[in-house]
Design brief:
By secondary structure, this protein is mainly α. It has one domain. 65% of the residues lie in helices and 0% in strands. Helix 2 runs parallel beside helix 4 and helix 4 packs antiparallel against helix 5.
Length: 162
Amino acid sequence: MLLLRATFAFLALPTLVAGVMPALLAQGMPIERKMIVPGSALLTIGGVLLLWCVRDFFVSGRGTLAPWDPPKHLVVVGLYRFTRNPMYVAVMTVVLGWCLLYRSVWLMLYGLVLTVRFNLRVRWHEEPWLQRQFGLESEAYASRTGRWFPRLRPRLKKLSLT
C-alpha cells in the first residue's frame, strides 16, 4: 500500500512540476542543438537525485513526498545528510535542464517562480511542521545541515600537543 501511495505522490507532484509543466511550456519550441548534452545531463542527474530522495522517504521515512502522506520518521540519510531539501534541489536541476535544452524565457521564469515558491514553502510550512513533528531531532538536524546546499566546515580534528 505504501508503495502505491509513494508512486501516486511521485506522479502527482514532481512529475507534474518538473516534467509535464516544462514540457507544456516548451511545446512547439525547437531544441537548442548546442545544449542537448548539458541539458540532457542535468535532466538525468536531477531525475536520479529525485528518485534517490523518493526512495529515502519511502525506506527510511516510511512515508511519501506528499504533504498529505508525509514520512513517519525524520529522513537524515542519503542526500539528506548534506542538505535538508535535496528533493527541491533535484526538481530545480531538472527544470534547469529544460531551460538549457530550449533556452526559453518562459521556462526560466517558471524556474524562478518555482524557486521562490519552494523557498517560501520550506521556510513557512515545512520547517515549522518538522519542528512540531520531530522536535529536538529536527533542531539538531537543521543546526548541522544546510537548507539548500551543504555546509562547508573543516573536517580535520584539532591536533593535541600533549
